[in-house]
Amino acid sequence: MTKGMRVEPSEANNKTEQPQTAVKPEAAKAEPSKPSPATSRKSAGNGGGGRGVSWLALLVAAAALGLSGWQWQQARQQQQAQLALLEQQSSQFDSASARLDQRLEGVPQGRDWDAAQRLIAEMQRGQQALVERLNVLQGDGREEWKLAEAQYLLRLASLRLLAVQDVTAARELLETVDGILKSMPDSGLYGVREQLARYQTELESLPELDRAGVFLRLGALRDQVETLAALPVPEFDPDEVSTEEEYADRLQRRDRWDRVLMRLERYVRVDFQRGKVITPLLDDAELQRVRRTLQLTLEQAQWAALRGEEQVYQASLTQAEKLLTQYFELENPKVQAMQTQLQALHERAVSLSPPDLAPLQQSLANYLQSRKTPQVEEPADE
């Protein structure tokens, strides 16, 4: 059965009841006498069957009515739940609408909206200009750091040249400075790089000094002085005839003319080895003093090499060669080796005249100052 339908009494039940009611008056009119037992039993059976059908129909109608009532109750509960949900959604919509109205109250309208758009556009342009300026400043900052590094390296190269005359280190520093300036595409650095190239060419022509090597070489020669062989010292034999005794003996054996010649020899002397250095004979104490003097001379040459005193260095080497030649055996291999090394050290330079890098430093400083000074823009011609 469908929802909400009501059960009406069926037409069959009405039809069963209508013949009964119709038959009774006709039977009464036709035969007023008592009915037969068979007829009475038949009518009683018909009346009992009709009442059972009526009760069955009534039960079906009651069940249908109860079912329809239960369905109506379920539908009502669903409608109430949907109604509550709709009321809740309506309240949410009202609150959202109220919040939206509050937000819309601060929104400019008309001319205010146009003014706000223009203000936003101006703010965006200003922000873009600030970003571009920041990028420029960051780029300038990096270039300033590079130029400051180049200036410091130039100062360090000048210090190395003037203090210790280290040509190799100065060359490397100037090459680094040239690389820094090369990485900056600025036409204002052309003059600085040109001046730098001249100084690099000048440094290439200077000899490389090895003062530490000269100092160590002289120290090794000083330690070998104790092993050098000195000139042989003659040993006198007491049994040997002296020069005076030999002269007296010769004088006795000669005749008168020979004696006259011998006497004249004491006043006149013919020297066939004139110009030859006569080396005095030294004892052990004097020989030790000579060795010590040679060692001090070599030490003086050492300190002169470290300080870059070229004249003192060359004079000390010359004095050492004189002592070696005058008091030591030149045919000895050690003496010859030391003499050869002293002559080689004469050719080693311990000082030079380095170029002054002050003009180059001043040129770079002027360029840095020109970058920091703002350029005055000329007024445009109307």
UniProtKB/TrEMBL annotation:
Listed Polar residues bias regions: 11-21
Region (Disordered): 1-47
UniProt xrefs under InterPro entries: HemX
A family per Pfam: HemX
PANTHER family linked: PROTEIN HEMX (PTHR38043)
Protein's name in the database: Heme biosynthesis operon protein HemX
